[in-house]
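hey
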């Protein structure tokens, strides 16, 4: 049980750390293929989704790459209207991708993963939200209350 908690804490740490210090590329990708320029933020009808693509440990990297290419993963993921906020590789776990997704595109995201990643990765989706502003406000109120008591 403690190992699961430690693993979950590490996963959450790695998933949300990039949100605190994310940097977007400033130059467009000169080669054909996906653009790495920051896309406009989706409307307020969007959610954050943390996607964990766990390495299937019975496959080595060349096998995983072959499966992803054969299924067209890189052509369909991420869907065009989803914004990648962070993409982290956690050694021993796999890829942890945080996306901002318009609510109307949740199905498209799910299909892209099902059609492109299954067979190479075990997948997990977590609806998430940016907690940083809430945390900062709480700390400020807590410190103000402590100052009032003294």
């Amino acid at each position: 049980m403690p190992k699961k908690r430690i693993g979950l804490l590490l996963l959450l740490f790695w998933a949300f750390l990039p949100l605190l210090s994310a940097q977007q590329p400033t130059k467009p990708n000169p080669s054909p293929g996906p653009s790495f320029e920051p896309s406009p933020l989706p409307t307020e009808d969007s959610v954050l989704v943390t996607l964990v693509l766990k390495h299937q440990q019975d496959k080595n990297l060349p096998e995983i790459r072959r499966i992803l290419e054969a299924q067209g993963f890189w052509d369909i993921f991420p869907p065009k209207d989803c914004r990648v906020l962070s993409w982290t590789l956690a050694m021993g776990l796999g890829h942890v991708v945080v996306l901002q997704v318009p609510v109307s595109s949740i199905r498209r995201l799910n299909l892209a993963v099902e059609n492109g990643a299954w067979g190479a990765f075990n997948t997990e989706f977590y609806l998430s939200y940016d907690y940083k502003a809430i945390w900062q406000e709480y700390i400020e109120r807590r410190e103000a209350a402590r100052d009032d008591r003294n």
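The mean pLDDT is 80. The helical segments are 2-20, 61-70, 73-76, 106-116, 132-149.
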